[in-house]
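1st attempt posting a full record on here, be nice pls
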Amino acid sequence: MGQDDNGLALKPKKAMLKDDTIEEFCNRNKGLYYNPVTKKCEQINSCDPNPCNGSTPVCETVDFSVDPKGYKCLCSDTSCGKGKTCVGGQCINCQKGVNCNCPSGQVSDGNGSCYTPANKCVPHNPCPSSLPNCSPIGETDYSCSCTSNPRSCPDGTRCSDNNMACKNCPAGDRSDDCGCSQYGKEADGNGGCRCPGMKISDGYGGCKCPTDYESDGTWGGCKLIDPCMNVDCPDAKRCEDGECVNCSAGSDCGCYDDDATANGDGVCEPNIHECDPGKEYNTDTRSCENCAENADCGCFDQGGYADGKGGCRIICEDWEYWDGSKCAPAVGACETSDDCTSGNYCLDHSCRPGCESDDDCKKGSSGAYCKDNVCTSGCLTDSDCSYSYQKCQAGACISPCDSNPCTNPKYPKCYNSSRGFDCDCTSTSCGDGYTCKVTSTPNLTDPGECIVSTGCQKDSDCASGETCVSGKCTAGKNHCDPNPCTNPKYPKCYNSSRGFDCDCTSTSCGDGYICKTTSTPNLTDPGECKEYVTNCTADKDCLGSYEKCYDGVCKKPCDTNPCTDSRYPSCTNTSSGYICKCTSSSCGSGYKCETTSSGVSYDENSPNSGLCKVLQTETCTTDENCSAEKKCRDGYCIFRDTCSKDSDCASTERCSENGYCVLK
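the predicted structure (as C-alpha cells):
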C-alpha cells in the first residue's frame, strides 16, 4: 500500500480525525499497523503464517475491503489431484485423453479422474518382423515401423527415412545398413544380395573365387592361383605373373649344374671361387681342399708356402724357428721382453740383462722398477713396503712422518702408525705448569698428553677452605661465591690472584661467535668471545674445535679427507691432529677392526681401538713361511688380495682358482 507525505496509508478505511496521531490512525484501521522504525502505517501480511492447505495451498494477500480475512487461497500445478489442473487459481477438470497429473500409462477421463486407455500394440505386437515397432493410434488403431539399429529389414533392403517401410538398396551397395556386406556380398537392387565381381556362391551363404583362382585382395576380385603353372623359362630367368623375367644376380636360377650363377641380366656366368691361403678349389667336389706341400696356393704373398695341411708355413727370421703353427724365438732370442726371463729385456732380438719397463723387473733383489734399463730397488705398490703405514711414491716407500705433519708446538714429535701418524709431546714442549705424560714405554698408539704438573685447575682440586688461584691452592676467600660474573657472554667464574676472572663457555657467546680458550683453560688465560670466521693465514686464526688453517680456510683435519689407506678410511679429529681408524669391513681378509669394550671403533682412552688386528695365529718372517695364497705381514700369515681374473692382480701375480692373487 502506498504512503502519502504524512506517512499515512493511502485509501484508508476510516478518515484521520483531527486530534489523531499517525499511530492512533493506523491502529483504528483494520489491516494496518504502525511501524515504529519507519514511523508509517503498513499493511498486515495475512499470509504469514500461511492459513491455506488442501487443494488450495497457495496464500495471496488482498485488501481487507475485498475480503475481511485479508487473503485468498489458490491452487497450484500439483495440488488439484488426478485428472485436474489449476487455472486462474481454481481446480478444473482436464480434457479427456491428456495426462493431466495422471499416473504413468493413464489419461484424464474428462470428469476429474484418470483411467488406462486401450492399446492395440499390447499385450501382443500385431506388426511383422520387418516392421517390429508398434505405435498405438488412439484406442482403436495402430501403426508399424522398421528399425535401423538393430536392423529389422531383410538383407538387401534398408529402413526408409520415416521408418515406415523397408526399401530396396541400390545395386552394388556394400554399406552395413543394407545387410549384404556381412556375408562378403553386395545388394542386387531387387531387395536381395549377390556375390561381387568374379566371385560365386560358396553354398553356405558366402562367396568364393572359382576353381584355380584366389582373391586378389580387392572387393570381388580374383586371380589365378599359379599364373606360371604352364610357363617354362630358360636358365637365369624365372616366371613372375606368367612372364619370364631376369633372376637376381648371384642366384642359382638353373645355373648351378654348370657351376655358375645368374648375373642379373638373364645370363649364367661361371663361378669364381676364393679359398683361404693353403687351400684350392676342387671343381668336382665344389669345395676348398688342402694344397700340396710347398705349393703357392696364396702362401707366397705371405712370405711362405703351403704346408700341405690347409695352411701356410711362413719363412721365419734368422732368430726364429717354425714351431708347427707359427714362428717362435729361438733359444736366447726374443721378439718382445715377454719372451725373456725375469730381470732381462729384449734388444735386437736378444735377451739382455736389465729392463725396458717396470714389468721387466722382479720384486726382491733384482729391484722393483726400471730406471735407465736397470731394475732398481724400491717399490711399485704400497704392498711392496716394509710397514703397513708406508705409501709407495715414485718408487720409494714414504712414511707419514716424513712430511713433518705435527705443527702443534705442544705436540711436535711424530710417530708413524698403522692408521697414519700420531703427534706426541716432549719433556719441554708443554710449557710452564705442564708436563708431558706418556706410558712407561712410548708407543705409536699411546701418544703423550700435556697435563698440569702441580697445583690445581679448579676449586674442587683443593682442600676444604682453599680456592684455586693461578694454578695453586690458596687459603682464603672464594671470590666466586656468590658468582659475580653477570655478563651473559662470560658467566663462568675463576678465582685468581687479582680476585676473580670471568670466562665464556662453549654456548654463551651467541650466534656467529665462539669462545676462544687455550687447549687447557686456566685461571690466567680466560676465554674470549670472538667472531667466527672461515678465512685464515695461520692455525691461530681458526677458532673452531680441532680447526686448522688449510690453504687460507679454517677446516678440521678430517675435512681434508686425509685417510687414504683403504684399511683405515674413517677419520676422527683429535686435539693433536687426526686419527685414521678402521671400520667393520675395511681391514680385509685375515684381520678384524679392534673396538672398545662398548663397541666404539675409536676412543682416545683405548689406545688399540680403531686398529686392524690379525686374526690368524700362523706366524712368519717372510712370504716363504706362508702358503701360496697368503703373505707375511706384521709377523703373521694373512690372505693375499682377492680377485676374479688375472688383470685384478699385480703384473707378477695371477688369480688362483680360489680367488686370491698368487705369485706366477
